[in-house]
Amino acid sequence: DHPDTAKAIAKQVKIITDPTRQDLAKSRGVAVEDIDPSECRAIVVPGWEIKDLVEADWDRVLAHEQIVFARTSPQQKLIIVENCQRLDKIVAVTGDGVNDSPALKKGNIGVAMGISGSDVSKEAADMIILDDNFASIVSGVEEGRLIFDNMKKSIAYTLTSNIPEITPFISFILIGFPLPLPTILILVIDLGTDMLPAISLAYEKAESDIMLRPPRDAKKDHLVTKKLISFSYFQIGMMQAYAGFFTYFVIFNDYGMSPQILPKLDAGANFATDISEDKRYLAIRNSVPRGYSYARNWFENDGIFAKYFTSGSPLPVQTEEEEDLFSGAPGAGAGVVGAPANEQFNNMIKIIGYEYQIPPCFEYACTSGGNGTALIENDWQACFGDATSTVYYNGFNTGVKNPNVMEHQDSVPNSGCFDVWTNEMQDETLTFVHSGFLLSIVIMQFTGVMICKTRILSLFSQGMTNWVLNAGLLQETVMMIGLLYIPPIAKAFGTNHLKFVHWLPAIPWSVGEFVYDEVRKMLIRRGNRTGSGIGLWMREFTYW
Q1: In three state form, how does the secondary structure of 6-75 look?
Q2: Each residue of 377-406: b (16+ CB within 10 Å) or e?
Q3: Which of 243, 242, 240, 261 is nearest to 252 (CA)?
Q4: Cα distance from N-terminal residue to C-terminal residue, the chain
């Protein structure tokens, strides 16, 4: 078109909204040369001027915010594209003729006409407008932004579970905690509970502000950025890890092991493992039966119990010749209801009580007087202070608490009590712990997938209308119920039926995760509207 015609059309479609240099000269009644080019935000460049432009002239022309080129040849289109790209601009080129092909190919995105366009132009283009309607470009841009958004959301959601999956192994290696989450349950998360929710984010509808955002910087705004890593790993991922470990400590505490005795507990990889018989048993000192625990020792040929692992000790539990210590499960014997029949087991109980100077947490009995006929119940001095007595820890089988236990105080002799954990008891407790840690991650991922539905808008604005995602949440729930409460499945995956109370520890963390993200997005939106400092800071460092 003629430059005047092109300018008139550009003003009608709002490409030009400010006066050009010629307009200012006309309105002021002066020559065009008398108008300072820096005053103008708009410019119209005819094709016959392009051949005379040098690099400095191109920099001046392309510094304008509103630019229209008129009556340009296909070769001049290519020159325009090259100069724009030289200034790191993203260039979209439209065309329908054979001669437009070089510019279509050179542009960052070439757009050809589907009806009137030549086959050559279609071949060179990246996008073809099937209805030859330029308004369709806007729909294409929106669809592209939606795809990019949803890919980022799916990646962000998928990465959040990495931290709660890797920190259990770090705690096991560096701190010596019994392993909070085994490998098989990590696979359950990655290949089971997370799969459908991650896929469902591809079906998420566009956020209402998607076409109000400025174009992204292709050099910095990649799918995976530092801010996305920070969000997924160090914000949401760490919250999920905290929830997992909180649940881990709660369940261990409820089953008789307080958090303070867990560090280094599994430093030798003894806990709940099939190892030498003398390391099957874990002695734990408690304030009261089922109370908090304040110390523990493995019953092994080391430390305070080493001297009893010789044939010369008064109560030998294992000599060098004996390798089947505590062979068989302790059964009933000695005429005492529930009393273990294994002599070495009974010797171990007496040794632990004597060394700790406290009674067992559950009922026990002993014979004394040298003839083995006098039966004494729950008397520490008579049973553990007399070298000739034989102790029977019948509470180990009956589960009846020792009524004579005094609450532990450092200044009170014989206060507190001890409990003994077999390999089987350790293993069963660990299955509950694993189940709780797994459940806490799944609960946190419920919230995680909902907060990943939007990058800046509130979930309440976006809604829960993605029914593929809703089906994913239902699938997670059904999988967890099956893993925890269907015995064959639980046995196969090493889980166990959790008490209802152990579903609760992760819920406050899940609520906190949701509130944190809603507040973060609210501050970003406020920063966009008002320019508030905290909002702009949150956008700069947390908008992924």
Answers
A1: HHHHHHHCCCCCCCCHHHHHHHHCCCHHHCCHHHCCEEEEEHHHHCCCCHHHHHHHHCCCEEEEECCCHH
A2: bbbbebbbebeebbbbbbbbbeeebbeebe
A3: 261
A4: 43
CB proximity list for 146: less than 8 A, separation 6 or greater: 205, 206, 210
CA 258 – CA 480 distance, rounded (Å): 26
- Does residue 168 contact residue 180 with C-beta atoms inside 8 Å? yes
Residue 501 pLDDT more than 90? yes
Report the mean per-residue pLDDT for the chain.
Answer: 89
CB 485 within 8 A of CB 497: yes
Tell me, what's the pLDDT at 491? 95
Segment 242-255 mean pLDDT: 96
CA–CA dist 175, 260 (Å, integer): 12
**Has residue 61 got a pLDDT over 80?**
yes
User: Which candidate, 354, 364, 348, places its Cα nearest to that of 397?
Assistant: 364
Mention every residue, 6+ apart, whose C-beta is less than 8 A from residue 272: 178, 423, 426, 427, 429, 430
pLDDT the model gives residue 325 = 47
Q: In whole angstroms, how far apart are CA 372 and each of 238, 334, 349, 393?
A: 60, 10, 18, 16
Distance CA 391, CA 330 (A): 13
Please report, for residues 63, 124, 199, 468, 511, the alpha-carbon distance to residue 194 in angstroms, rounded to integers and kept in the order given. 48, 40, 9, 13, 19
C-alpha closest to that of 61 among 26, 30, 20: 20
Q: What is the DSSP letter of 179?
A: P
- Match 């909902």 to its residue by tokens: 450
> What Å distances lie between residue 230 and 217, 343, 543, CA to CA?
19, 58, 10
